[in-house]
Amino acid sequence: MASEGLTSAGYIKHHLQNLTLGFHPENGLSFAESAEQAKEMGFWAVHLDSMFWSLFLGFVIYWVFRKVAKSITSDVPGGLQNFVEAIIEFIDESVRSSFTAKNDYVAPLALTIFLWVFLMNFMDLLPVDWLPMLAQTIGAAFGADPHHVYFKVVPSTDPNVTFGLALGVFWLILYYSIKVKGVGGFFGELAFQPFGKAGTPVNLILEGVALISKPVSLALRLFGNMYAGETIFILIALMYSAGWAMGLFGGVLQLGWAIFHILVITLQAFIFMTLTIVYMDMAHQEHH
């Protein structure tokens, strides 16, 4: 794609633009052909690429675990069963070390978050041009202008996805905070800690900021790290259009960054999972 008439800036913008479907003030229900059109579609526009890949990867997790569950054996387990059991044991140890209350839903939640976020991050290791070029080819077959066909394949580089995950965790925090402590206990923590009744205004500000910062930090940390990693892959890909010497150097850089990025994508999934467990543990703690 870098060699098809796009400037370097255009190439980068093209790769960072989502396939957006929404109601445009002039065109009605349509696909956005530019970032400006996507902005004009407003809040209810849908990023179809992020939606597709996040749901597809979620289905992959479901399919693999269902397959293992149906064929599980206590005799000589296969490689896939050993792999799944190792992941479950790792998640179980993480929950036991960070979650002190009793809630049978926390471990499945942690398992889902870790695997889902990891797979979404893992899409960052695919060559940056392969799937976007395939999408352009399919779009051209249906009469679309290839330069106006956008396709981002890393859902976690979309803040809509990361905030969606974080808000889901946030609602669980609120639900269990109220369920365990009661409405009075939950709002009492916001109003009377850490400075008691005399410091209620300050308490509300401090505790309110601390509460809201949980989903914001979860979403922005994941988005920022993955967006930066994807941008670096795109910048390296530009080197392939600058001659064989720069292309060779870019290949070395890409391999090195990909190896390092394996650690990044795993660490970000682990951090998101661990913070979720910690926040859920805090929601279950009663303060007297």
Task: List the main descriptive attributes of the protein structure presented here.
3 strands, single chain, three-stranded antiparallel beta sheet, mainly alpha, about 290 residues
Task: Write down the oligomeric state.
Answer: single chain
The portion of residues forming beta strands comes to: under 5%
Number of strands: 3
Count every helix, treating DSSP H or I runs of 4 or more residues as helices: 9
Order of strands across the main sheet:
2-1-3
Unreliably modeled segments: none
What is the helix fraction of residues, given as a range?
55-70%
* Shape label: globular
* Class from secondary-structure proportions: mainly alpha
C-alpha-based Rg, rounded: 23 Å
Write down the overall mean pLDDT. Answer: 91
Distance between the termini: 61 Å
Explain what you see.
- The structure is a single chain.
- The protein is mainly α and 288 residues long.
- The chain has one domain.
- It is built from nine helices and three strands; from the N terminus they run αββαβααααααα.
- Strands 2-1-3 form a three-stranded antiparallel β-sheet.
- The longest helix is centred in the C-terminal third of the chain and has 41 residues, at 244-284.
- The protein is globular.
Summarize this, please?
This protein has helices at residues 8-15, 35-40, 48-70, 79-98, 106-122, 130-141, 159-192, 200-238, 244-284; strands spanning 20-24, 28-31, 46-47. It has 288 residues and is mostly helical. The chain has one domain.
